[in-house]
Amino acid sequence: MENLRYCHEDKGLIIYGYILMTNHLHMIASSAHSLPAILRDFKSFTSKKLYLLIRNNPKESRRKWMLNEFRKAGNRNKMNKSIQIWENGYYPTALYSNQAISQKIEYIHQNPVRAGIVDEPEYYHYSSANPNNPLHDILVL
């Protein structure tokens, strides 16, 4: 959340809707600047931060397994020096109407409901569906 806020404030990322799940992020966003460059920087920063948080947390029960998986993924990909957390690339879909944007936002908001985490989208904290989400003050609705 901190890094998304930074990308908004310092790199011009405009966020219309998002959902941060345990293993992926969906975001409806735009920028007057290079969106691929912003997302590249976002992924680079969060990879380093997540790796250190996991590596330095002795209470993380899956630490050894996760660090090993990050190293294996990094070794398989010539673009990395040692670890890989995010998949390469991103998968943009151009949305040309408010109706298309609303449909996609509704779809991503249903992720935690489909996963059985919450009964209603607005109950999931890391989602633009929740009025008290960490990015509520920067969202363009």
The overall average pLDDT, rounded, is 93
Cα-based radius of gyration, to the nearest Å: 16 Å
Largest sheet: 2 strands, antiparallel
- The percent of residues in helical segments reads 40-55%
Query: What would the principal axes of the Cα set say about the shape?
Result: globular
Spatial separation of the terminal alpha carbons: 18 Å
- Tell me the total number of β-strands: 2
Derived from helix and strand composition plus strand pairing, the structural class reads mainly alpha
Pattern of helices and strands: HEEHHHH
Low-confidence stretches: none
The number of distinct structural domains comes to 1
Sheet with most strands: strand arrangement:
1-2
User: Beta-strand level of the residues, as a percent range?
Assistant: 5-15%
Q: Give the count of helical stretches.
A: 5
Molecular structure report:
The chain has helices at residues 2-11, 35-55, 63-76, 98-109, 111-114, and strands spanning 14-20, 25-30. The chain has 141 residues and is mostly helical. A two-stranded antiparallel sheet has the order 1-2.
Quick overview:
The chain has one domain (2-123). 43% of the residues lie in helices and 9% in strands.
What attributes does this structure have?
141 residues, 43% helix, globular
